């Protein structure tokens, strides 16, 4: 019979098992608000060191989520660190909210192809319930609802990002964040890795090798040229992270 571990005192160890061990053994966990917050902070802190996904940018993402007006989403992430950062920012911003205020909303997309899957990411909806956050994964190719902050990290090439921005940028009401804009800024991830561009273009459903070869900055320049956005921060370290803010009408 599977055990249900009531998480009431500490988020680190339950009946001799860590949270990760319990999840990997498929043992259900029940969180109080206190232990959910402790677990969230522990997962965030453990993600701050490379090679964790976006490790050097997680503090910036957490702070940005706190300014996002109560909603955030990530599409195509390559690890769970960004989700912990977004949820922590949303929770911290919601503390002290008046009764009846809308619950913070977090949506996560399916991980990018080949990205390592962290089993603890499955806890996000459960932690969200304990913390008053509406957290769920966007299924299949569905788009997220309109959110204050939208993190985009899919295929790192011009053609794929241009397509993603056309679909996703209208759903970001305050901030749009794009990862990989330094390492794959001028030439694509496929070029840097020496992958065959014809096969890359076919796999991504692009119109040709040029879209698979060019980097992300061209797609960002096209978005900026269309109006409505401005670059408010660019971090060149750790692969690069670019933050755009929507201009007020």
Explain what you see.
It contains ten helices and eleven strands. It has helices at 19-24, 33-46, 58-66, 81-94, 124-131, 158-168, 189-193, 197-204, 209-213, 217-225, and strands at 5-7, 13-14, 17-18, 29-31, 71-75, 105-108, 134-137, 147-152, 172-179, 229-235, 241-246. Helix 4 links the parallel strand 5 (71-75) and strand 6. Mean pLDDT is 89; it is low at 6-13. It is of the alpha/beta class and 249 residues long.
Layout: helices, strands, pairs:
Elements: E1 5-7, E2 13-14, E3 17-18, H1 19-24, E4 29-31, H2 33-46, H3 58-66, E5 71-75, H4 81-94, E6 105-108, H5 124-131, E7 134-137, E8 147-152, H6 158-168, E9 172-179, H7 189-193, H8 197-204, H9 209-213, H10 217-225, E10 229-235, E11 241-246
Parallel strand pairs: 1-4, 5-6, 5-8, 6-7, 8-9
Antiparallel strand pairs: 2-3, 9-11, 10-11
Helix pairs in contact: 2-4, 2-5, 3-4, 6-10
Helix content: 25-40%
Q: What's the mean pLDDT score?
A: 89
* Uncertain stretches: 6-13
> So what's the CATH class?
Alpha Beta
Shape: globular
The first-to-last residue Cα distance is: 59 Å
- Structural class by secondary-structure content: alpha/beta
CATH architecture: 3-Layer(aba) Sandwich
Order of helices and strands: EEEHEHHEHEHEEHEHHHHEE
Give the neighbour order of strands across the main sheet: 7-6-5-8-9-11-10
Count of strand segments:
11
Radius of gyration over all CA atoms, rounded: 19 Å
Q: Fill in the CATH topology.
A: Rossmann fold
User: What's the structural domain tally?
Assistant: 1
Helices, by number, come to 10
**Main beta sheet strand tally, sense and closure:** 7 strands, mixed
Assess the beta-strand content as a share of residues.
15-25%
């Amino acid at each position: 019979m599977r055990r249900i571990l009531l998480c009431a005192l500490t988020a680190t160890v339950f009946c001799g098992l860590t949270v990760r061990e319990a999840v990997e053994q498929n043992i259900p966990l029940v969180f109080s608000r206190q232990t959910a917050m402790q677990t969230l902070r522990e997962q965030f802190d453990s993600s701050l060191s490379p090679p964790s996904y976006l490790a050097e940018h997680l503090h910036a993402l957490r702070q940005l989520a706190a300014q996002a007006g109560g909603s955030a989403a990530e599409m195509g992430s390559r690890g769970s660190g960004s989700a912990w950062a977004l949820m922590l920012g949303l929770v911290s911003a919601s503390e002290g909210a008046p009764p009846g205020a809308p619950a913070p909303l977090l949506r996560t997309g399916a991980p990018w192809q080949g990205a390592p899957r962290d089993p603890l990411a499955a806890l996000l909806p459960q932690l969200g319930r304990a913390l008053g956050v509406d957290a769920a994964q966007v299924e299949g190719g569905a788009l997220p609802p309109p959110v204050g902050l939208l993190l985009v990290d899919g295929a790192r090439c011009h053609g794929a990002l241009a397509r993603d921005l056309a679909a996703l940028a209208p759903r970001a009401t305050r901030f749009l964040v794009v990862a990989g804009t330094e390492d794959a800024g001028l030439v694509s991830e496929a070029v840097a890795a020496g992958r065959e561009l014809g096969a890359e273009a076919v796999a991504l459903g692009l119109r040709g090798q040029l879209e698979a070869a060019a980097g992300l900055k061209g797609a960002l320049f096209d978005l900026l040229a269309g109006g409505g956005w401005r670059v408010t921060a660019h971090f060149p370290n750790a692969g690069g992270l670019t933050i755009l803010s929507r201009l007020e009408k």
